[in-house]
Amino acid sequence: MLVELLTAAEAGFKDPSIEANLKQFCLVLLVSLGVATMSRAFSVLRNIPYTLLLLLVGLGLAVLDVRLINLSPELILFIFLPPLLFEAAWNLNWQSLRRNLVPILLFAILGVLICVAGLVWGLQGIAGTSLATALLVGASLSATDPVSVVALFRELGVDKKLTVLMEGESLFNDGVAVVAFNLLVGLALGIEQFDLSVSLARFLIFTGVGISVGGLIGFGISFLTQRFDLPLVEQSLTLVSAYGTYLVAEELGGSGVIAVVTTGLILGNFGSRIGMNPRTRLLVSEFWEFVAFFVNSIVFLLIGDQVKFAGLADNLNSIGIAIAIIILSRAISTFGLSALSNALVNSDISWQGQTLLWWGGLRGSVSVALALSVPASLAEREEIIAIVFGVMLFTLLVQGLTTQPLLDRLGLLADKIVLKDYQQMTAQRVALTRVMKRLVEIKESEALDPEFVGYQMALVEGQLDEVKEKMLRLEQQNEDVRNLTTEQLREELLAIESDTYAELIRAGRLKDELTPLLQSVLPDRIGEVH
């Protein structure tokens, strides 16, 4: 029996299709890593977000008619999307998400409806497309994908609140958009009639099953990892949960996207605290950072590579109208819903922040996947794909590449550069303090010439004093810097409290996770100190 299995496996490895696919995959990786290297090797490319640079290279390959891999909706939705969603949810702080949950849900639910309604009205009434085309284009383009913008925010140190709003909207928005697309496909094909109560019931079932499956798996793995301390096993469990949650939810008729987001949020904010020690948590976070980089590298390169310029040229009028409608509907949803949120829960979203959220609403992999999944039986399928690709390219290339100048123009960048400098000084202070501690140990042990060690200590101490002086000057001159120090201290103290509870749970001295007492005691900002 064993011999037969080995013979079958050997025959499989000799299959020429496997070898060809492996070569294609290696070629994609080679191009992606080459772009990553170029983006750091040449200063002129450093201001272009890495994902957009990959998209440009993919477009260049498309111009040359070099097709690396056939990009299918199954490849995006079942292979690429789950890890990207999980990584974003894993790193999204629940406390920050909860504080901004009202505007995020408004953007993710009502924003989708405004986008779909606007595109249906514009494409059918102005561009003259069929209702099926307008419905499916609207559902496809209602999903935002601000990967490049969020990466730019993090690199430049933009206000965390804007990052949370944009990333949180995208996570929930993707789920709502996929559900909306599934509901509208039947209408577009003419096999279903629109019924508000039925559509609402189906929406609630999709989301309810997704949240239930995600919650069950997320909490299940959280309590499971309390029982052992095996970093590689715990890391593997998170990977299995990302794909397994998606597949189980889809199989049960729910939203795989919402299920993965739920699981990622639970494991990142609850499971990693009660079931993982700090070292394992860091290991898992670094693993998912690599996975996100790896998947994004492939996705954006292949999206650019799939563009068919002939189809774009044939539908240029519809694409132009769709772009105008997208920008207008995004403005209505962003400014209108932000004003509503500010009035309802005092969200305090400034007009500068609203402008940035409006312009940063890019479209990407989810929109492409939904467009490619339009049934081949629909006559307008190629038109839908062309419009979606055209709008996606405009948002990524035009809006994506102009986000940094917009940040500067809105005055959101100047203070952030100061904060970034302060954070670098903080790291230098910590490093130099550790160096001084080590030199003191060497001096006390008399392992080296005391005069030599003393000279080294004087040099390091001089650098340390200089760094401390610069930090003190920034703290005195800039309120944002003072608020940053308060926020960092608050996060550190809350982490210590949560880690202590987690250690007691793992040791069997505490049965349940406690709500941190310091959460409601420590101030978020300097101005809250009385």
Q: Which percent bin holds the helix content?
A: over 70%
Number of strands: 0
- Helix vs. strand class: mainly alpha
| Molecular shape | globular
CATH fold-level label of the largest domain:
Na+/H+ antiporter like fold
Approximately what portion of the residues adopt beta-strand conformation? under 5%
Distance between the first and last residues' Cα: 77 Å
**Biggest beta sheet summary:** none
The first-level CATH class of the largest domain is given as Mainly Alpha
Number of helical runs?
A: 22
The whole-angstrom Rg is 26 Å
> Which ranges are low-confidence, i.e. pLDDT below 50, for 5 or more consecutive residues?
526-530
- Structurally, how many domains make up the residues? 3
Q: What is the correct CATH architecture of the largest domain?
A: Up-down Bundle
The overall pLDDT, averaged over residues, is 81
Order of helices and strands: HHHHHHHHHHHHHHHHHHHHHH
